[in-house]
Amino acid sequence: MNDTPPLKVFVTDFDGTLAGEDFYNLFVSRLYPPGAPDYWSECVAGRITHFEALRNIFAYAPVGEAAILELLRDMRLPTDLPQKLAMLRERGWQVVVASAGCRWYIERLLEMAGASLPIYANGGSIIEGRLVMEMPVDPTFRDDYAGIDKAKIVRSFAADGTTVAFAGDGATDVAPALAVPAPLRFARGYLADVLKQRHEPFQRFQKWGDIADALR
What we know:
Elements: E1 8-12, H1 23-30, H2 39-44, H3 50-58, H4 65-72, H5 81-90, E2 93-102, H6 103-112, E3 119-127, E4 130-134, E5 142-143, E6 147-148, H7 150-158, E7 163-168, H8 174-178, E8 185-187, H9 189-197, E9 203-204, H10 208-214
Parallel strand pairs: 1-2, 1-7, 2-3, 7-8, 8-9
Antiparallel strand pairs: 3-4, 5-6
């Protein structure tokens, strides 16, 4: 008889969740030029997808790699991230990142923090000073609207009986949050508001480290 406990997976959103600030918000407030097209309103109105809005905004102006890297310093990853990840590993949790943002800046931020995690996110690279976001090459979790289907990622881990926790803060986090048990559903911001309106129970968090401390 195998008494090994099932693997536990913590799927975490990145912008606004693992990172305290959202790359999109910093980019728009500091680097997006005045008078540029309002692609986000186009997305909200349903005329373009979430992926198209982010891709168009990030690639609109050749702001340069140095200016983009400067934003990363203010995204506020937990200063004790390696220690929190080690603690979660000791408790049997595998942590993975699921983001509708861009792998390019996620990888660099994690490297700056001294952390290495599996990442499910949209591709991207700097081309002629522009951050050009690309749809994932692997079709497994690709989504026409956001680029990445976080709910599908959550369900793929849960399919074999794995215990799955999820944390997020935005619109693309609603479906994956509802795909995990309420005690393992962590939310703040927009996601918390939606879950509250739907009378769906969840665990509210202020910072990512609070979740790491709560998971047993």
